[in-house]
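Field: COMPLEX_INPUT
Field: COMPONENT_COUNT = two
Field: RESIDUE_TOTAL = 220
Field: MODE = joint
Values follow.
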Amino acid sequence: EAQVTQNPRYLITVTGKKLTVTCSQNMNHEYMSWYRQDPGLGLRQIYYSMNVEVTDKGDVPEGYKVSRKEKRNFPLILESPSPNQTSLYFCASSMSPAQETQYFGPGTRLLVL
Amino acid sequence: KNEVEQSPQNLTAQEGEFITINCSYSVGISALHWLQQHPGGGIVSLFMLSSGKKKHGRLIATINIQEKHSSLHITASHPRDSAVYICAVRSGNQFYFGTGTSLTVIP
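Field: COMPLEX_OUTPUT
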């Protein structure tokens, strides 16, 4: 089954404790992206990757890192999480940004205390 | 100021009604997408438009590039259409999103 998986689905952590949210897709997609969703602000793009070893900042990259060492995986790293990074995070993938369908992961709900 | 504005924010309709959700954008775009977010949180792509009109079943999406405006119409609405509908625009390789329209269809 074609899918984007994210782990963990729910995470409660404390300020400053490094964490990684994993994202994996099984569709051989080249374009992958991370978004955060906040009430009243909607979805905002954090980082995206056009292919292996190619990553670019989106609208709200501050406080986040990403890497793309393999085509299927695109982890999101919070080196020193802060409470303002409490949010719902989505990973998505598609063959290219011009493809009609982006496939979204199920979301990761993060609470930073 | 958000690059993408949607209206209305919330919409309640009776089953069978014709529904329109509007999206305006202020940036130059390569394409516009409509997404649906289910009550459980999952997001699915509905349409991608760069011009004209597209139809999938009871859903119709239109775009007017000159006016920087798109509409999503739902004909013969059904309670299963209850969801948040999100407009997104692609500018280069980046995406910008509206804050969504929460639709509730009452039986």
